[in-house]
Each structure stands twice: as structure tokens, then as C-alpha cells.
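REQUEST FORM: STRUCTURE PREDICTION
Request ID: SP-0412
Submitted by: Lab K.M.
Chain count: 1
Length (residues): 263
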Amino acid sequence: MGHQHLGKLPATRQWVAVIDMIAHGIDVAAIASATSDAAAASLQAYANDRTVQRALYLLAQIPLAARKREDSFQAALGRLGLNVETPDLFHIAAACLENLDRLTLRHRSDFGEIVALSAVESLQAVTRRSLDDLFGATSDVEHRDRTQEILSGLATVKQFGLLAEDFFGRVLRRHLEYYLSRELPLHVGMAKRFSSLREHEEFVEALHLHCRESSRIVSRFAGEWFSKANFEGGITQKKAGGFVFVAMGKLRDELRLRNEVDA
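STATUS: Completed
RESULT:
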């Protein structure tokens, strides 16, 4: 992961407008919205990206695997292609990343890498919020059982919605930074948008916050999708890939709305 190729922004009218907004001190909301709109067309090329499909599929299926009672959690993970010696969070996350890395080597795309890394990070971050008490666990068995319990708890409308919110906040941030990171450093210096590196860092921090707040729009939608898709024949990789792009469209609309409110 992490091999995105950076260069200059495309010389289209939309991207020229984004560059102009950066140079003239326009706020984060407007720049985020304009960047998302300018990048929208590129997302269509990834509608059938196998890594994108697989990443969201695993994010949805791991909680369901933790709920299965007919066999062990380890066996259920194995059927997803996640072979772990110990079904704890560390090994599950590592197996996910390895699984997605193998797929990325065969079907590499920059957006696929963004989605894959975000999925693994979100699974770890959301699960760890409930795992703090595990440091006092008396045995490895207790630790594994508690991990499975917490992961199985993500297989509800509300909890999967929160997992998806974290995931799409990371995807949105990385997707915007994929483009903006090429241009923002060119605007640091005397008589430029950012007079210091600190000002540049503050802008990036504000962008991250804006992405996290914007991603709340997908929480309920994601939870309802999860429940409906699982009920209607189960969650497939194709369904998962389609969901990502519908959700990205909702995020784009939310960025536009936030820009209009701030204007």
C-alpha cells in the first residue's frame, strides 16, 4: 500500500479553478467541495475495481463472521480468505491487509489502495474503542472471546453505520489529499496562501475535520444498506463496490451543501 503516483493537477478548467481558490485564500469547505467535484469523473473508472469491492466486502463480512455460531470464528474468517493463527484484532487486521495487498498487486489502482488502507484502519480504530479494557484480560482465550464479541456487535444497523462513518471519513480525506497534496506545498512561503508551514498544517487539520464531519451523512444510509443487503441474498463484493460509489456521491452532495451553508 501507499504507492500513489503524484504529479501536477490536471490542467482542466475545474482543476485550474481549484488551484485559483487555494492561491486566493478561499476556505476549506469551498476547496473541499470543488476538489470533490473535479475528481468525480475519475471515480467512475473505479466502479468495478476489485480492490474497492473486496475492501468494503471484508469490512462488512468480518462482523457477520464473528456472529456465526455453527463453527469457530477462526474458521469463518478462513472462508473469507483471512487465515489467522489467532483471531484477535492484530492478526485479523494483518490478514486483511495481506489479502488486499495481494489483490492490489494484480489489479492496482490508486483509489483501490485508498479504500483498502482506510478499511483496515477503520476496523482497528472502531474496535479498539471498546477494547481498552482488554489490557486487564486474564488469558488469551478471554482476549479472543472479547474481540469476537466486539466485532460481532458491529453487525447491527447502528454500529455498522458508525464503522462506515469512520471508514468514509478516511476515504474522503485520502481522496481529497491525493489531489490537494500535489498543490498545497506550492503555496507555502512569503506572499503566498500559507506564510508558514504551521499555516499549511492548520489548513490540512481543518480539512481532516471537515471530512470527518461530512462523513456523518453516510452513517444511517450505510447501516440500512448493510441490513438490507444482508437480508436480500447476502453481501457480495459487487454489492459492496456499488455501495462505495453511491456513498461517495452522497459525500460529494454533502460537501456542496456545507459549502453553500458556509458561503
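NOTES: The chain has one domain: 13-262.
Reviewed by: T.R.
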